[in-house]
Amino acid sequence: MRQAGAVNHPPSTAADRRRRADDADRLVADAFTAAVGPDPTGLVAVAVGGYGRRELSPSSDLDVVLLHDPAVPEDRVREVAEALWYPLWDARIPLDHSVRDAVQMRATAAEDHRAAMGMLDARTVAGDAGLVLALRSHVLADWRREARTRVEDLRAGRRQRLERSGWLAYAAVPDLKESGGGLRDGVDLRALVATWLVDVPHAEVEELRSALLDVRDALHTSTGRRTDRLAMEDVPAVAEAVGMEPHALDLHVRHLGRRIAHVADVTWRRLDAVLAPRASPRPRPGLRRSGPAVVQVDAGVGWLGDEVVLTADADPRRDPAVALRAAAVAARAGLPFAAGTAQRLARDLGPLEEPWPAAARRSLVDLLTAGHGLVEVWDELDIAGVVDRWLPEWADVRLRGSSSPVHRFTVDRHSVETCVVASTLRRDVARPDLLAVAALLHDIGKGRPGDHSEVGAPMAEAVALRWGFPPADAAVVGRLVRWHLLLGTVATRRDIEDPATAANVAEIVGDAAFLDLLASLTQADARSTGPTAWTSWRRGLIEGLVAKTHQHLAGTAPATTSDAYEGWPAELPFPSADALARARRGEVGLDVVDHHGGSLVTVVTADRPGVMALIAGGLALQGLAVRSVRVVTQDDAAVSLWEVARPDLLASAVRERLLPVLAGDVPLERRMTLTPVEGLPARVRVLPGLSESATLLEVRAADRRGLVWTVCAAIAAVDCSIRSAHLSTYGDEARDVFYVVDADGEPLDEAATRRLHEAVDAALV
After folding, report:
1. Range list of β-strands (E), 612-707
2. Same domain assignment for residues 420 and 483
3. Which of 253, 275, 297 is the last residue of a domain?
4. Could you cite one Gene Ontology molecular function of this protein (predicted)?
5. What's the number of domains the chain is made of?
């Protein structure tokens, strides 16, 4: 079995792609000959793109152009085209076809760099080969003559691809073709070489591309469809097809993408030096030159043009901290290392004494707080092998994919991105150095069995000690790693208006300084995870929890007795006494306000059994996804606050659709029946000791319409009421927590809790 990271591949695979192209050539040539007759003068069938390169995967289209001399009559061209395409369509050949004359082709290539790149790989399948030779010669000459413009078009196209598809090495769902480091980057490199402006290590690139094409072949074969996206659910079948374990395949693909992306980045930097050579940066005051073109910026570190180098007197063996200084300089200046600098560090770097000296620790902190420049520098040093010298534990998370659908990066890239975000929050905390280290190490336990927060905490503390942090500081880093999920979990699954919630958090964090560090780490972690991890809703909940915990730590929080708890956010006006009186007489009051990217829907009704289930069903029928629910009862009136995901709701429209449901005119039992889903069964459990005023019930189940209504109806069926509910969705899984009380508004006793658990569990079967 091949190991992850190897580029060896079955020798028959590349041959299979050529065989497919040869088979396609015979089909196209036969159809062309039948269509043209004995005299093909002025007409030729041309293979372009991947077909032109003889790189046909099992489900690839055939990119074919019917090229003709402008002198050939239009009727003749039209007749040949119809006679050529129809037999191929009848044979169900996947065809991407066009008809062009030589002048049109050259003009198209002049206007569209992608078309020009396809023509650079043009190959005669059948017909007048002289037309193709002339066309390629003209297009290549145009490409080289307009090279400075064409490479900028190519650069802009690549930038758009990266924004759309991310990086193959780090994307949660990599695109083998379009992602940075994918097959398209390999084609771009071929086009750059054709400009004669820059060279690339051709043999290495072709070996990497061929290995990546092997994976795409297996993807097409195992899925039976044309796709370039390696989705998580397809990995096991693709891995079996190439003779790897699924995890090894994932690492293999990401390793290929990382190496291709690295070659591409180096090539673009070399090209930039050719296109726009710039003078060396102006020396800073007090700095001396160590050579004719090198500006020394730190001991052993200098600038050479727009690159960071080691100066002539640098000695990485005797001064291993020079690697940290060089990395910090490069990251803070946003400059790359000169060619060979990272490799020299990896080759010559001596061991740092442990614990690290204070100067080395300061350089590390400078690197981790450098902002976005950290990403490229860390990646370069990681590829070279320097990072392993500083942090051997990194090997377990390197290029490791995440099982969570909300993550957009691999674990290692996510950790570096968390440092980048944390650098923008350093003024919010007393110890930005500890925040930076915890940001890098917060997921370090994901490479080991067990809960990564629990596993990673002692690992992070040990690393911090090795890096020279005092024991007390190292302990803070370990605690930050241990509790980095605390605020997000509690804020979205507990009632932050319940004083007991803030009290529980305060007991864990201990003091305000640690709370500030944890809040900043939580934000950095979420923002670098993906857009759904730091929505305005989640941000509002977490910031609200942090504020209430600060109050508790300062001794200014309200009492934690159930009598003092009203269950209503202080910033929102409570319905008036008149509105409550109307509700007791049977009227329904409803108000809507925008809130954190969604809406808050306040419903005032008479308090009666099952009213929460009815409202939940009525909102679900309107397609409103509920984020949280809060309920307050005043005598015989019930005021419920529903946070929904859709903004800009009209209160009149919501009320009009809700009234028939509350009147019992809508058969919710039929409309809200849960759709069966395959996979893990729903899990229902009671969460003890988290509130003094309610019993907490957690439901984990497949998210679908009717889920909230089903749970609310089951709770009502055992004569219980919902005081609040907090609903979170992770991909296709719902994790909902309900604060349940009995008819007297008190927490449930043991027998009632058992009946509740059984009722909800049975409803979700």
Report:
1. 626-634, 637-644, 683-687, 695-702
2. yes
3. 275
4. phosphoric diester hydrolase activity
5. 4
Residue whose token pair is 């030779």: 133
Query: How far, in Å, CA of 132 to CA of 128, rounded?
Result: 8
Residue 277 pLDDT grade (very low, low, confident, very high; cuts 50, 70, 90): low
* 494 and 602 in a common domain: no
Beta strands in 512-634 (DSSP E): 589-595, 598-606, 626-634
Res 495 pLDDT > 50: yes
Q: Residue 627 and residue 629: Cα distance in Å, rounded? A: 7
pLDDT beyond 80 at 368: yes
Q: Which tokens sit at 377? A: 């520098």
Question: Which one-letter amino acid corresponds to residue 752?
Answer: A
Q: Rounded to the nearest 5°, which phi and psi values hold at 4? A: -60, 135
Dig out the tokens for 399 from the structure. 């290029």
In the numeric block, which tokens belong to residue 655? Answer: 């009320």
Q: Residue 536, Cβ neighbours under 10 Å: how many?
A: 12
The DSSP-derived string for 86-101 is: HHHHHTT--EEEEEEE
Mean of per-residue pLDDT scores for the chain = 88
Residue 419's H or E segment, with its range, is: helix 411-423
Q: Does residue 145 register a pLDDT over 80?
A: yes
Find the length of the chain: 765
For residue 66, the domain's CATH number is 3.30.460.10
The answer to whether residue 102 is domain-embedded is: yes
Same domain, 534 and 601: no
604 band by pLDDT with thresholds 50, 70 and 90: very high
In a domain, 331, yes or no: no
Contacts of residue 174, defined as CB under 8 A and 6 or more positions apart, other chains included, come to 166, 167, 168, 182, 229, 230, 253, 254, 257
Domain shared by 629 and 729, yes or no: yes
In a domain, 307, yes or no: no
Does one domain contain both 683 and 599? Answer: yes
Q: Highest mean pLDDT: which of 200-209, 462-471, 613-622?
A: 462-471
Structure tokens at 40: 């093909």
Distance CA 652, CA 625 (A): 18
Segment among 41-45, 54-58, 514-518 with least mean pLDDT: 54-58
Extract the tokens encoding 281. Answer: 């940066």
More confident: 336 or 645? 336
Residue 112: how many other CB atoms lie within 10 Å: 12
Which of 393, 520, 395 shows the shortest CA–CA distance to 466?
393
As a whole-number percent, the residues of the chain with pLDDT over 90 amount to 59
The Cα–Cα gap between 604 and 602 comes to 7
How far CA 522 is from CA of 150, 181, 217, in Å, comes to 44, 30, 41
pLDDT at position 272 is 84
Contact 345, 381 (CB under 8 A): yes
Arithmetic mean of pLDDT, 259-266: 90
User: Is residue 668 over pLDDT 70?
Assistant: yes
Q: Where a domain ends, among 129, 145, 161?
A: 145
pLDDT of 353 > 70? The answer is yes
Asked if residue 550 and residue 586 are part of one domain, the reply reads: no
Average pLDDT over residues 69-74: 93
755 and 610 fall within a common domain? yes
Tokens of 290: 């160590």
CA dihedral 127, 14, 178, 238 (to 10 degrees): 130
Q: Which of 169-178, 234-243, 373-382, 624-633 comes out lowest in average pLDDT?
A: 624-633
| pLDDT tens per residue across span 312-336 | 999 999 999 999 999 999 999 999 9
Exposure string (b/e) for 638-660, b if CB count within 10 Å is 16 or more? Answer: bbbbbbbbeeebeeeebbeebee
Reported as type and span, the H/E element at residue 729 is strand 721-730
Q: What's residue 23's pLDDT?
A: 93
| CATH code of 531's domain | 1.10.3210
Q: Which residue has the tokens 């759309």?
A: 164
Is residue 570 situated within a structural domain? no
Q: Are residues 156 and 136 in the same domain?
A: no
Instruction: Specify the pLDDT at position 197.
Output: 87
Contact between 346 and 399 under an 8 Å Cβ cutoff? The reply is no
